[in-house]
Structures are given as structure tokens and as C-alpha cells.
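Journal club prep, notes for RB
We'll compare a predicted complex against what the paper describes. Inputs for the zinc ion case:
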Amino acid sequence: MDRIEFHIAARDGRARTGALRTPRGEIRTPAFMPVGTAATVKAMLPESVRATGADILLGNTYHLMLRPGAERVARLGGLHAFMNWDRPILTDSGGFQVMSLADLRKLTEEGVTFRSHVDGARHFLSPETSMEIQRLLGSDIVMAFDECPALPATEETVAKSMRLSMRWAARSRDAFGDRPGHALFGIQQGGVTRELREESAEALTAIGFDGYAIGGLAVGEGQEAMFGVLDYAPGFLPEDRPRYLMGVGKPDDIVGAVMRGVDMFDCVLPSRSGRTGQVFTRRGVVNIKNARHADDPRPLDETCGCPACRSYSRAYLHHVFKSGEIIASMLLTWHNLHYYQELMAGLRGAIAEGRLAAFAAGFAAERAAGDLPPL
Ligand SMILES: [Zn+2]
């Protein structure tokens, strides 16, 4: 198979479940993509990431272009071979991270000039250079180069930025060309303004992409405002293409977004939290640093099948975390990624069986009940 195909197997309300089929393997949707910023999901071996149930990873163009460099990765056989992950990889365009370097960059119609946070060297990113870098990396799903304005911003600023992103989307499409087996996703912008989200979706659909991301959310607007946008924004995008909500999110963000028709997610939260002692469980977030765990022989979650829960106590995880031992990051990251993938599997199963509302209610009730009472 040399084409990427999206197949919807079942629907429940606005939610969908199915698969995005690629030459490197199938991505079951709704899907969560762990973030492998610098060609590694921190504290995890690639085979361990796969064992949690991940079908696809995300890599960051900005970080990889600066270090080790896209040409070097290409000479070494591409990102899959370089990092020992043979399944699909999605790369972002670098735009979001460059834009967050507010005082280290200069934005023009052509693109963005910026200084590297690694060595201060000057670099230039544009739709054309971003497509070339993502091609050199060997990414399966390539993201169009866009601008995401920092919020809060006026509607006028958001509109101007969105229209620039739509011109860049057309340039990204031209520069990407025809690459069988690789997909290009466009990114809807428009902040929290319905008319701008609609205008952006129309512009992207006219250009034509293999999938569509919803960008510019989860940037500090809060869950209520984000869900407000997701009540209409996915509906402006083509029904038969995957919809990807970038940078989201917490488990309850994901459940709410799936119910509003989103198919793909990525977020650093489960891996980053694993290194800061925040543990995601079906009973909500557990802080392993808390002294209440010091004498607790029970697992984090007795129903979880991950190595941290099968073979270690809360007391041990508390101890190795407090001692700064590397195994704490390894075990807690594994558990968090496992929890996220179990959540996605639960959502997929619930949609397939038409019981998503009951699943979401059970999810909320378990979280509301809170962690196990202390011993
Ligand atoms: Zn676990």
C-alpha cells in the first residue's frame, strides 16, 4: 500500500472511530501520539512506547533541525532508522515553537528568521524550508507551516494571522508536491471566533489536504472556551478526513474533544508529568511526592497492567522519586503513557459499541471519587 487512507468504522454522536492506514502501519483512531521531541520519548525505549499501545509518535521539527540537523538525520537513514521507531511519525512544522521565541524572531510574509536556543545561530523557516526539513526527516505525516498568535490577542490580530497561515498553507501544499505514502495536514486557525474558524476551514478545504488539524487551542484559553470552539470547529472540516487537535491535552480534554469529533491528539503532559511525579490514573491525578505514599504497599492502580503498577508499590515509587533515581522517570512515564493509551482504547471501544455517553459518565464518576483513601 503506498497511499494513506482514513477509514471510519463507526460513529457515536459526533465521535468517530476507525483507522488511518499508512505504509508504516495502522493508526487506530481516536489516537494519542506521545511526543518524542528530540528523537526520543524521554525515559522510554521505543519498544516500551510501542508496548503501551502507541501507533504513532510526534517529532519536533524545530528541535531536530537545530540538533542534530535534518541533513544529518537524512544521511543516517531518516528519523525512523535514527531513533529505532519503524511505525508512523508525525512531525510538526516548527512554526509553533519558533513563534514562542517572541524576542528571538522576525516574522515577514516570506517566513520567520530566528536565533537557535542551542548556539544562537541564525535560521530561517518558511513553508518551503519546513516542507524540505520534514521530507529530510522522513516524516509520514507532515504538518503545514503556520503562525499561531499568542493569546490573548485581538480578533483583528487573530484574523490577520489566520489569513497569513492560509497563504502559507497553499505554499506548503505546493512545496510538499506529490509524495505517495506521505500525508500533508493543513491547520485550521481563527482563535475562538466562529466566523474565522469557518473562513479558515473553507480556505484549507479549497487547497485540499490529507487531514486537518485544529490549531491555536490549548494555549491558555481554558477548557470551557476550548470546548466552545470544538462545538463547531470540527464540523467545518471535511467529514471524511482525520481531524487532529494539536497539543491536547489532559485526559478530560481528550474525552470532551473525542465527543466533539476529534480523531488525533498529541501532548507532552503524560511524559513530562512522569518526570515531575504527577501520575494520571482513572481516579484522577496522584502526586507521588506526597508523604502519604511513603508506607503504602499498594500499586498506583490495581487494575493497571503497566510495569510500574504490576511490580512496584506506591512506597517504592515515592522513594525512588524522592531520591532522584532515573527509574522513577522511567516507571512513571510508562504508567502515564499506558494510562493514556488505555483511555484511547476505551474511547474507541465505546464508540464502536455506541456507548460513548456511558463511558464518559463512568470516566467522570471515577475521577470525581478521587484517589484511594490513605491506609
Ligand atoms: Zn500503571
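Talking point for the session: DSSP finds 15 helices and 16 strands in the chain.
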